Amino acid sequence: MCSSMKGEVAVSESVKTAKYKEVMSPSTEINYEVSGRRPRESSSKLKPRHLYMIATRGIFSTILTEMAAAVPLNGAGTDYYPTRFLSKSFGFAMGYNYWFAYAILVPFEITVSTLVIHYWNPPVHDAVFLTILLVVIVGLNYLPVKDSGEAEFLFSSLKVTMLVGIMVLSIIIVAGGGPTGERIGSRNWDTPIKPWILEGSVGSLLAFLGVLVSIVLPMGFIAKMVAVCGGETKNPAKTLPKAARAFVFRLAFFYVLPVFFVTLICPADAPELTSGGSGAGSSPFVIGIKTAHIRVLDHIINAIILLSAWSAGNVYCYLSSRSLYSLSIDGYAPKFFARTNKYGTPYWSVTASGLAALLAYLNVRSSAGQVLTWLVNIINISSVFPWVLLSWSYIRFRKALEVQGVDRNRLPYRARLGKSSAWFCIFFFTVIGLLNGFQVFFPSEWNAADFITAYIGIPLFVLLFFGHKYFRGRSEPWLVPLNQLDLSPLSVIDAVSVGDEVCGQELDGDKKTSG
Prior knowledge:
The chain crosses the membrane at residues 98-121, 127-145, 157-176, 196-222, 243-265, 300-319, 345-362, 374-395, 422-442, 448-466. Its main location: membrane. It is a multi-pass membrane protein. It comes from Fusarium oxysporum (strain Fo5176) (Fusarium vascular wilt). 43% of the residues are buried. The protein has a single domain (63-470), classed as Amino acid/polyamine transporter I, CATH 1.20.1740. It is 63% helix and 0% strand. Helix 7 (145-174) runs antiparallel to helix 15 (297-329) and helix 14 runs antiparallel to helix 15 (297-329). Mean pLDDT is 75; it is low at 1-60, 495-508 and 510-515. By secondary structure, it is mostly helical. It has helices spanning 2-17, 48-56, 62-70, 80-85, 88-117, 126-140, 145-174, 200-214, 216-220, 225-230, 236-245, 247-265, 271-274, 284-291, 297-329, 347-356, 368-403, 419-435, 448-455, 457-471, 489-514.
């Protein structure tokens, strides 16, 4: 009875909406049915606990969660929102920006892993470790998404355990419970910032700006990870809001607290931090543990950091392949990239992302540290555009609700700050993008390669946008009118909600009858 009621509701709703309005490329032969699902889409096998542990790896935007719960991605990348709420040209440019950035993040994490391995000075060439890491990362992404999610769940659990252990250990060290019995207290806060490039307060400001720019790397793309993975959960309209409500607590526990404790055990002017320490030897956690004269534990921490970098590479390979899969679905990339196996894995997209990961072999000719700098510069500038465009998409999404007379209370999740946080993101990340690589403008820090990698993303994005506009979008408006923005997925959510409510009432009635 329950399943039939859901079917009746869905059929009734399909008569009203028939199909989603076409907002993607006209060349695509794939239409959006009322269910919002795409033919042969990637598998929806991620469970809520997988999603929560993936969310634990980083911050995700609550404004994106509001859109993702109302208009689930269902196998698409988050470039779907600029395409839907801005224009196809913006979606095209952001889609390739996403794929490129995620693809670059894979060799980045492999390079980080190589640096960590250097801590033990193994008598083996870097190419051996690069090959092993590359094969394992790409190979795992050919498996069903459920298996990949289970692997990430296990590694995230291990990292959470490490963070909890480090925080407890930090308290012990600060209180004088280390091998030396020395009580540190807040002594390391006496010199909170070490000047950079210039001396004095100006150098301290430059150091702060350098750190501010660098946080874009860990935060810039992970914010969208839950939305992408949410499209592969069974019920994103319910799962995403639950994950979003735990956002503040996860942010405080997994980011703020570890950073707070590391400032207690690691001095800002530690030589290993400021003199280009080798690999994981420059990790503040490792420095703090070695300063406290605790043996063996630094090796354990490094091993977990190695696993962390490896699992991050695995996740970014997943996101890269899904971004290319989305581009193919939308008609922006060759159709064979949308082909999936019986597990729902887009194997050609995984292959292409794996080929991009071959950039990790640059470490064979150049130092890993230099390659890491280039990759960081490229990724940083590439991560700015998604934040700006997604925030702009959210603002237009909200305006479309008002113009089309849609009650926002219908949404499965509503971001508290809403438009204010969206405008702040646009301003903040625009400034961050301009500051990326700012140090090269000082005579003592000038480096042509650093300058190019720091700002190459800007002309590339502009070229992608205007290239698509010229060849494919000349007959289309620069922005889709607000009254034409497609909000039909909300009708589907309402239909499913009604079906769930009816099912719940019937189940309650059955229980009472049987009782």
